[in-house]
C-alpha cells in the first residue's frame, strides 16, 4: 500500500488522487463531526458554502447547522460553531446536521470523486485505519487542510503520520501525535485562551487519540455529499453507490475502548 500527502492549499492538479483519500481536519471540522455523531446526529451533510447550507436547511427543516469561517469564528445564523465542546453536551436525537467549514468541508467536496473518501481526525485514528485496511486500496492519500500562510498544519500532519504508521503495521504511542496537535501553530492559539471562539476545551477534545470506534465515510446520495459512521467489517456506501469487497483485517490493529 502506497501512502502520500498533499496539501489542500497548494494542490498539484496533475496528480489527482483517485483511490482512497482521507481529508484530515483535526482542529476542528472532523473532530466536531465525530462528537456530533456521538451526540446522536443521524447524518452529516458537508456543504461548502454558507448560502448552500441555508438552502439545504430549508429543504431539511429538522436539520441543525454547525460551522465556522476561516480562523474559527462561528457562522452567524448557524445553531453551533465549529466546536466539539459545544456539541459534547448536545442532544441531536437522530437529527441530520449540515456542516460548513473553510478547510475540512472544502477538502471533502474537492475530492468527492475518489473511490473511497474519509473524513479524518485524531479521535478517529485507529477506526479510520481499520476502515482503510478493509477497503484494501493500492494508494492512500492524506489531504492536509490545516496548513495556511500563518499556520504549519502540523495537527493534521500528525494525524496523517499516525494513520500511516498504523497502516504499515506499527504500534506507535498515540500520545506523541496528540502532543503535536497541542503544539501546532493553531493548537497554541487554543492554549492561549484569549479567543472565546478558540476555547482550550476544544483543543483537549481534539487531542484525544482513538476516542471513537467509528470512521467517517463520505458518500453521495441524490447528488448530495454526506458523512456516515463506518466500522471495519461493515459494508458501507461508497461514492456513486459503488461497493468494494471487504477483505480480512490486517496488521493486528485493535481499537481502544471509547
From TrEMBL:
Stretches for region Disordered: 226-258
Catalytic activities: (2R)-O-phospho-3-sulfolactate + H2O = (2R)-3-sulfolactate + phosphate
Keywords associated with the record: Hydrolase, Magnesium
Keyword Disulfide bond appears in the UniProt entry: no
Pfam families assigned to the protein according to its UniProt record, in alphabetical order: 2-ph_phosp
GO MF entry, a single one: magnesium ion binding
Positions in coiled-coil regions: none
Top EC class of this enzyme: hydrolase
EC number: 3.1.3.71
Cofactor(s) the record lists: Mg(2+)
Gene3D superfamilies named among the record's database cross-references: ComB-like
Family of this protein: Belongs to the ComB family.
PANTHER family referenced in this protein's UniProt entry, alphabetically: 2-PHOSPHOSULFOLACTATE PHOSPHATASE-RELATED
Stated name of the protein: Probable 2-phosphosulfolactate phosphatase
Source organism per UniProt: Candidatus Accumulibacter proximus
Source taxonomy: Bacteria, Pseudomonadati, Pseudomonadota, Betaproteobacteria, Candidatus Accumulibacter
